[in-house]
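Human: I'm a chemist; would you kindly supply sequence and structure tokens for a protein?

Assistant:
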Amino acid sequence: MDVIVSRTRLAECAPLYSYRALVSLEDVDPDRRHRVAVLHVQTATIRAACTRIADTIAPHRWFERDMAVSFDLAAQLGLAARRIEALLLPSVFPEMTTWLAPIALRLEHDPGSASHRVATIDLNAAFDAVVPRIDTLTAAELAPPRSTDRRAA
């Protein structure tokens, strides 16, 4: 599975950057593609259809939810997605050292915007497997060393 990780300089706010990790839509389970939010990401070489990590890891019951009973699940899903994002980002952007990916990060230097594809394990419906060990989950468990692959996006 490919995840596009990116660092984007926020306009007129140097050196303030936004970091994102998005799943390529072609890697999302075909049964859930019509149920996820689709974001079109412009990289250096292509325009890619992607979705959020939260939509990718969501359990099947998330898509069949009754809005009145899903608040706890929504909070857990958001936390798990942000933690996975924070584990994937440092593999390409070593300055990202926070436990959860922040909305924006002010840097002492100005490295510029960049995006890369990172190979990961299959994250489709991985919520139930990830949440019980979210506090101890490591980047190596998401992107095993033998399959860690960093390419320009």
Observations:
- The mean pLDDT is 85.
